[in-house]
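#lab-general

N.A. 3:47 PM
ok so I finally got the sequence cleaned up, no stray characters, all 407 residues accounted for. can someone with queue access submit it? mine expired

B.Y. 3:52 PM
send it over

N.A. 3:53 PM
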Amino acid sequence: METKSAEKKANGKTTHKKTSKKNSSRITKISDESLEQIIINSNKASPKNMMEQTVQYEKRIYDLEQLLDIAKSFCENLDFKNLLESIVYICMAQMHTLGAEIFVRDLKSNNCFILETGGNAEKDNSEKFKIPVTSPIASKLNELRKPATLAELRTDEIVAVCPEMKILESLNPTLIVPLVQKNHLNGLLLLLERIAIEDDSSYSEYEQNQIMLIASLASVAINNAALIEQSSTDMMTHLKLKYYFFNTLTEAIDSAFLTNENISVLMFDIDFFKKFNDTYGHECGDFVLIKVAELIKSNLRDSDVASRYGGEEFTVLLNDNTGKEEAMLVAERIRSAIDNYDFIYEGQHLHVTISVGVSTFDSKLNLVNSPNEFVNQADKGLYMSKQNGRNRVTFYDPYENTLEELD
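B.Y. 4:20 PM
back already:
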């Protein structure tokens, strides 16, 4: 029995070896035939054709390398606004256009695509171009899953007469590219006027395939950045959350130390906030919080970071080498704007004021060791503003161990 079993194993090995040899010889034969065919084709091809093929292959290799760099760039950029700007410039460079625009899903309502680039990015949401997600344009692009021109979209009778076509026509794109993520339309990429090469401003099939590859990478990056934006933003005031503020502040302190620059932190608290809730209800309190947040944000630069610290408290990080004097001016500007704003809730005129504390990082005068220490200094300034009558700004100076009030 043992002898027969051994023979079977031996025969199995022999069969396996024969099969392997047979497959190997078949692959070798195919490879030899393919190589032989390539040699024959090469011999048949003229030097001119060979040169053209070489140029085409080199271009494709170069384009693939570019796509890898683009993917890396998109992955590294998780800030929503900076990412959109990066996508615009990359698409302009790759497709040789004088401009590009991006419509993305509204992060607040998710019911429309908003133009978030160019001069439109600075406008209030109510003034921005919007295309509803239910628009025939969105449905058509999601169905096509490929770039289209305005003329091609107009061939659809329903799309041609929908009101959103006027928005696209006003932007005058040479190509409209759908941004698709997980079988859903994530946005629209518009390529504007193209730099004509030999009087031909059209897009070849190869170029359209390339822009779709870039659009696929962009769509994934936009989706990831949008998730981070939503998870780090207070949905009521649309300011950043406390944990995001501290992470940003930590990086800002490290950067300020290395570059020997100043940065400042402001801390705000709405005076007698409880009376708005007790007198008019919590909806009134929410109204006050939202309006105060809007006024704070409208008085800051794009590089500054405002957050809802908790309850009726807000914090602001002033970047770009902002020292004591400039920080005090910004704080006073915000305090004054809120003090003079007419808050109207259900016909009632409300007078809202805030108290402010200010602290400045200085590598010589105030070298704070942590973001907690930095914010606590501003909080001490805020406490003194409250103690001295509210509706005022106080600077905390640990070097002199005094609190300076701005009248």
